[in-house]
Amino acid sequence: xxxxxxxxxxxxxxxxxxxxxxxxxxxxxxxxxxxxxxxxxxxxxxxxxxxxxxxxxxxxxxxxxxxxxxxxxxxxxxxxxxxxxxxxxxxxxxxxxxxxxxxxxxxxxxxxxxxxxxxxxxxxxxxxxxxxxxxxxxxxxxxxxxxxxxxxxxxxxxxxxxxxxxxxxxxxxxxxxxxxxxxxxxxxxxxxxxxxxxxxxxxxxxxxxxxxxxxxxxxxxxxxxxxxxxxxxxxxxxxxxxxxxxxxxxxxxxxxxxxxxxxxxxxxxxxxxxxxxxxxxxxxxxxxxxxxxxxxxxxxxxxxxxxxxxxxxxxxxxxxxxxxxxxxxxxxxxxxxxxxxxxxxxxxxxxxxxxxxxxxxxxxxxxxxxxxxxxxxxxxxxxxxxxxxxxxxxxxxxxxxxxxxxxxxxxxxxxxxxxxxxxxxxxxxxxxxxxxxxxxxxxxxxxxxxxxxxxxx
Length: 457
Hints:
Layout: E1 2-10, E2 17-21, H1 22-27, E3 35-40, E4 43-52, E5 58-61, H2 63-69, E6 75-81, E7 86-90, E8 92-96, H3 111-121, E9 126-130, E10 135-136, E11 141-147, E12 153-159, E13 163-166, H4 171-174, H5 177-188, E14 193-194, H6 201-209, H7 212-215, E15 221-223, H8 227-237, E16 239-244, E17 254-259, E18 263-270, E19 273-279, H9 282-293, E20 300-304, E21 310-311, E22 314-324, E23 330-339, E24 354-356, H10 358-366, H11 370-391, E25 398-405, E26 411-417, H12 431-448
Parallel strand pairs: 1-5, 2-4, 3-7, 8-9, 8-13, 13-14
Antiparallel strand pairs: 1-6, 2-5, 3-4, 6-7, 10-11, 11-12, 15-20, 16-17, 16-20, 17-18, 18-19, 21-22, 22-23, 22-25, 23-24, 25-26
């Protein structure tokens, strides 16, 4: 297989003819050939080829070819020479998401991120965004959103893509029968679909239990704990976190503390404010939790509390934004240090937290040893990503880890997110990392679709 970057042009001839410059004929090993099959995504057609005298790598597509396989635009793109005289344009990359489909913000709050992804990707591939309802499975086509040079969306019909990057925003939608069927259909058609679904916290802890080397970084955690287990955890650790298995953004999290001779304390967030309640007995604490979440207290986990390093008396943890790169290796792309707001249960920015660079945070705690501690945390994050990928049976392309460092300098993993938010990249010092994150998503799409140059592998 050979891979070449070329310029695609459109001509108005109605027939199914492809005009190929001499240099491109040689590069694709087509010299002397009269016919090829030209492929885009899952569509392919037979076509005549005619050499032309033109310096550089150029491909001219007659109207009959362009419309038959729905080539979305002219310009720079890769050509992949396959077996049996088949040449593939691409890759054709689909970004799966959802939204209200308004003309200005079709993907709601994610529209800016989608635009950035499409803008950066337009130099490497045919990239478009689409929603589940945009797929026509009978015709094997997608009515996708492409980005014009002026930054506006335009809709075009294209074949099923070579790879799908899943950014569906809703846990509820992802567990629907329709989305389950959609994923299975892509799998049956051998279309790589990465970031299968949101992680469930209890599933992640269970997966990592199978790897002793990775599990050492996970605090003691129990799913759907009984009252007896809750009491045992509080007696042993003195403080724990009680949080929903499928929660996000810190919603529904309690910090529960047991202080002998003083009682039990519950800290949580309600109506945008931090709440602290004291209970004289364990039973009264459990009555409060049951009144708020039902008798069964299902779909919750209880997790050992960790005494994190602090700045100004406020604990800090770290969001590690991980990506698979173009060589299919895990790397740390961005790190944000999150300082908890005063009295807050979590370090989430929406709950009064502050965002710092890791250098700022670790420098204040460890001084000259900050870089040594950071490198150890990076190595841990990569180990955790590699372990999670081995245990998880679907393709992963990015992970957001919430890691903490305790006062003995031990590193802990609290959460893993399959579709991490991008709020850390709003920090002025992390904008370059935000751009690198986009580039790694695109490079991984090229890797999964097998559009990689040999010198990049």
